Amino acid sequence: MASHEIATGGLTMQEGNKQEASLPGGVDTAEVSIEEFCGALASRDMAGLWSRPPMPAHPIPQTRAHLWRWDTVAPLARQAGRVLEVDEGAAQRRALQFCNPGLRIGTTEALFGAYQYLDPGEKAPAHRHSPAAIRFMMTGSSVYTTVDGDACWMEPGDFVLTPSWAWHDHTNQSDEPAIWLDVIDVVMVATLESIFFEDHPTGMQDVAGFSLSEEKFGHAGLQHSDGAAWPKPYSPLLRYPYAQVDAALEALQKQSDGPSVTLEYKNPVTGGPALPTLTCQMTRIRPGKPTVPRRQTGGQIHTVFRGRGRSVIGGKEFTWGPGDVFVVPSWATVEHEAEETADLFVASDRAALEALHLYRETELPDRQQVTDIFEPATATEPDKAAPAVGRGRREP
Ligand SMILES: [Fe+2]
User: Fold this and answer.
1) How confident is the model at residue 396 (pLDDT cuts 50, 70, 90)?
2) How far is the CA of 97 from the centre of ligand 1 (A)?
C-alpha cells in the first residue's frame, strides 16, 4: 500500500503530477500523487518550497495603519494608576501597549509602543534587558530616568535613551502624574530569540549624578576628547532636551519654505543613529502645506507632540491632535497636512534595516486619493467598575 510505503520512506513518482523519487532508507516504491508526496514531507516536518506563496514584488505588511486617541488612552493610563501597583514583581512598569489589530503581537512588525504612567512620588524599579528602548515625555515634570547611574530629566518633549542591557529605573518626584511614550524593539529581538532580562540586585540604582551624559556629550559640534574611546554601540548622549530640538527646528524652518523639516536624534560620536536598531526623528509641519507623499520600508510609530492635522496612509485618512499615536506600515504611502504647526515624533526600525541593507525609501509624484476615513475607538470615561489588576490599589 502506498501509505505503508510512504511511512517506510519508499516513494516512486511518475509523470504529470507524479514524479520519480527515491528516499534514503526506503525499501519499497510506489506511485504517489504530488499531494501525497507533500503529505509525506509534512509528516517528516518538511515542506516543498513550491507549496509556499511566491515572494511578493514589494512588502505586503500585516501591520495596519491605525491610530490611538489621547482622549482614550490618557484616562485609561490614569485608571491604571488606580488599579495597578508598580512593584518589583511582574508589574514593574505601568505601560499600556498599543496593539496593532493586524498583528499577533506588536505595534509594528518590529516595535512595541506604549504610554507609561507613573504616579506622584512613585518609582519604577531598576532592571535591564537586551531589547533597547526610548522614552519620549508627554506630560509631567520633575521626573527622571536613571540610566547606568546617570539621572536624565524628562520634561515634556524630552527624548531619553535606555539602550540594550543598560540598567534603568524611573522616578516621579513631583506631585503630578507623568505619562511618557515608550518604544522598544522587543518584537524584533523576540523574533530573533535573543531576549535577556535581569532585575537590579538592589531594586533602584545609586544615582551617580544628574545629566552626566549631557555635560560630557551634549554640546553640538564639540566632542569630548575621550569620545573616540566610547566603547559601546549606542549614543553616549542619553538625553536630548526638547528645548534644543525646538530651537533647531525653528532655525531650520527659517531657511526653508517647504512643508516640513525633520531632525534625527544622532549618536554625537559616530553620526549614526542614537540606538543601533531604532531611528527616531522629530518632524515639524507647517500648516496648510501638504508634505510630499513618500514610503519607506519598516513600520513607523508617530506620536503627535503638538498641533493638529491629518495624514493619508495608504488611501485612508487619519485626523490627529496632541498625544495621538498612529502607525504607518512598511511601504505604505503617507502624506501629512497640518492645521496648525505640528511636531510629530517618529520612531521606526529604520536603523536596523539600514544596517542590514534592507532600507528603501521613495517619494511619489502624485497625492493620494482618499478612499477611506479612519474611525478610532471612541473616547470613554474611566470605568469605575473595572476590576483591579494584579495588586489592586484603593481609590484615593
Ligand atoms: Fe525596561
Assistant:
1) very low
2) 13
Distance in Å, CA 260 to ligand 1 centroid = 33
* Domain range annotation of the chain: 2-51, 66-373
| CATH architecture label of 66-373 | Sandwich (2.60)
What's the 128 CA to ligand 1 centre distance in angstroms? 6
Instruction: Write out pLDDT tens, residues 275-325.
Output: 999 999 999 999 989 999 999 999 999 999 999 999 999 999 999 999 999
**Is 253 strand, coil or helix?**
helix
Q: How far apart are the CA of 127 and the centre of ligand 1, in A?
A: 6
Phi-psi region of 271 (alpha: psi -120 to 50; beta: other; left: phi over 0): left
Residue with cell 536613571: 146
Percentage of the chain lying above the pLDDT 70 cut: 87
**Spacing, Cα 125 to ligand 1 middle (Å):** 9
Distance 183 CA to ligand 1 centre (A): 10
State the distance from the centre of ligand 1 to the C-alpha of 129, rounded, in angstroms.
7
**DSSP notation for 128-174:** EESS-EEEEEEE-SSEEEEETTEEEE--TT-EEEE-TT--EEEEE-S
